[in-house]
Amino acid sequence: MILSDEMWERLRPATEPFEGIDRVDIEMGLTVGEFKLFEAGDSIAITSPFGHILRIGMAGGELEELFEIEKQITEYAAMEGYKTIEIIGRPGWEKVLQGYDRVAVMLRKEVGYGIH
């Protein structure tokens, strides 16, 4: 088991918009390197690469800790040469995250000029 029960309980509500994705799918993605996990305190986020884009697909926990995770992800994305971060999330995120533009149902932020 990669995700503790506590981690899964924080992340589970974020999986609801994704029909059929469950704990096993997430743990398999982490195991094979398809997903990357970021943590701060009691909060968690899962990312997945899509070409030059690093996508934050799921997150759960406390807002302040999620802001810290977003900073970690931005630093990681820039260091790894991703051009863009995208967030698939609830509409409320666009009200509290700076530097992202609403693109259809995603938020997108430019982070660097490298190629991944």
The major β-sheet equals:
6 strands, mixed
Helix content: 25-40%
The overall strand count is 6
Give the count of helical stretches: 4
Quick one: CATH superfamily? Gcn5-related N-acetyltransferase (GNAT)
Describe the structure.
This protein has a single domain, classed as Aminopeptidase. It is 37% helix and 29% strand. It is built from 4 helices and 6 strands; from the N terminus they run H-H-E-E-E-H-E-H-E-E. It has a 6-stranded mixed β-sheet with strand order 1-2-3-4-6-5. The longest helix is centred in the middle third of the chain and has 18 residues. The mean pLDDT is 85.
List keywords for this structure.
6 strands, alpha+beta, 4 helices, 116 residues, single chain, Aminopeptidase
Secondary-structure blueprint of this entry?
Layout lengths: L4 H11 L7 H10 L3 E5 L2 E8 L2 E8 L2 H18 L3 E5 L4 H4 L4 E3 L2 E5 L6
Parallel strand pairs: 3-4
Antiparallel strand pairs: 1-2, 2-3, 4-6, 5-6
In short:
The protein has 116 residues and is α+β, with helices and mostly antiparallel strands. The chain has one domain: Aminopeptidase (3-Layer(aba) Sandwich), CATH 3.40.630. The chain is built from 4 helices and 6 strands.
